[in-house]
Amino acid sequence: MRTTGGGYVKPATTQLNLLWNIKQALPPTSAICLLSYSLAVDGQYPVQLHQAVLLLKYLVLDQGKQPKNIALCGDSAGANLILGLLSHLLHPHPSLPPLTLPSPLLGAALISPWGDFSTRAPSFSHNTANDSINGATLRKWAACFMGGARADNYNQPFLAADYWWRGLQEVVHELLITAGTDEVLVDGIEGFVKTVEAAHPSTRTLFAPREFHDQPFMESDDEERRCQQGKVLKAWLVARM
User: Fold this and answer.
1) How far apart are CA 49 and CA 91, in angstroms?
2) C-alpha radius of gyration, the chain, whole number
3) Strand (E) or helix (H) holding 179
4) Which H or E run includes 230?
5) Distance of CA 170 to the CA centre of its chain
6) For residue range 112-126, what is the model confidence (pLDDT) as tens digits?
């Protein structure tokens, strides 16, 4: 189950090369289900989280798919949405219908997760010239997505305290978290990794040298072959499906 990035304001246009290449390497019985969630111009938080909950409910409860055979994959804002979904499985959102799965999900891959809308981390200063995004752009996107909503552990999961993630292994078996060392979000991602690893030891991480934000899903086929995060993501998914 795939949720795309784009700051909740941009549609998935350049992000399908890697997705297609991964599909080609998977068994023929596997499928990729892409959530076409509402962009912020049409619906603000928690609309997108509700849509993710409904899709997972459809796959498991309506279509009879086993959670042990479902991997979640999201990049940037899509990874934000995956973390919101995992949070909902642990602590049902007060405004959304609860969802209880019969068993844990296979795994969740989070590529350059955007989990904190603050832009004060040092990496915003020393990586601005290296990255594909910047603090000013992220602030605009966050404002569009949030509307009048307040920050919480579903829309900004990096703000959640350690206790929030207890029991995560009962919801999802494995986690993969990747980022590039040249991205402005890297400090926040490093902090989140320390928090989530305490609750979920089966977490694999990669901080790829000299790679920028969401690089695996931003590149052409030729460039993709040189992207360390893309190679790791593809291998991780293929080995588990």
Assistant:
1) 13
2) 16
3) strand 172-180
4) helix 228-240
5) 19
6) 999 999 999 999 999
User: What is the SS3 assignment for 136-162?
Assistant: HHHHHHHHHHHCCCCCCCCCCHHHCCH
Alpha helices in 42-76 (DSSP H): 47-57
Say what the pTM is.
0.96
**Burial call 72-92: b when 16+ CB within 10 Å, e when fewer:** bbbbbbbbbbbbbbbbbbbee
Q: Which residue shows structure tokens 């962009």?
A: 39
Answer whether 176's CB lies under 8 Å from 236's CB.
yes
- Residues forming beta bridges with residue 105, ordered by sequence position: 172
pLDDT tens for each residue of 70-88: 999 999 999 999 999 999 9
Q: CA 57, CA 96: separation in Å to the nearest integer? A: 12
Structure token pair of residue 49: 């989280």
Instruction: Check residue 106 and report its DSSP letter.
Output: E
For 197, other C-beta atoms within 10 Å of its C-beta total: 16
